Amino acid sequence: MPTTWSRTAPDGEELIDLAYEAAKAKLESQTSAFESLRTRASGVIAVAALVTSFSAGLGSLVNLLRKEEFFLHGPHGL
């Protein structure tokens, strides 16, 4: 036996409530996605800053060692 639906169509106020709840759920989903993206971006920026600092320190050390080598052995020592 087929099922028949006896429910009437929602009125204007029910449609507004449904639309509001759907919009609210979508905004909560977008907020969660944005927070996740912000967390990952912060991690990437932190790693980039760490790598940059390490590279700059290493470059300074290499430059200092080359200068000391130059002063110890003259321009032909390089």
From TrEMBL:
Supply the name of the protein: Uncharacterized protein
What keywords are annotated for this sequence in UniProt?
Membrane, Transmembrane, Transmembrane helix
TM helices/strands, residue ranges: 44-65
Q: Which organism is it from?
A: Streptomyces luteosporeus
| Highest taxon, organism lineage | Bacteria
